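Re: the request from the purification team.
They wanted to know what the chain is likely to look like in 3D before they choose a buffer screen. I agreed to run a prediction and write the result into the notebook, where they can find it.
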Amino acid sequence: MQRLAQAPNLAIATLWADLLRQDGIEASVQRQYLGSAAGELPPDQCLPEVWIHHANQLARAQQWLADLGNTPQHRWYCTCGELVEGGFEQCWRCGAWMPR
């Protein structure tokens, strides 16, 4: 097993591991219960980690994680004039959907 990444929280670590498994990469979350030890241990040593089970899948997993971090974000103006940014496909002001 090899460590892929340290996640900012357990929810993100679990999401990454689940998505990797869906893509055929065997992954697991480690150190998921160390959050309660923060203070006794340095906080950065208590963050959850995602580990890859097979070394031959590490490069693919690293590329997958890099691609996830570089997902393009939409920025569009709604017909009501509101600027909608990020991954939102629906205007939070009027509820209209992003034009295709």
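For the purification team: The first strand starts at residue 2 and ends at 6.
Please add any questions underneath this entry.
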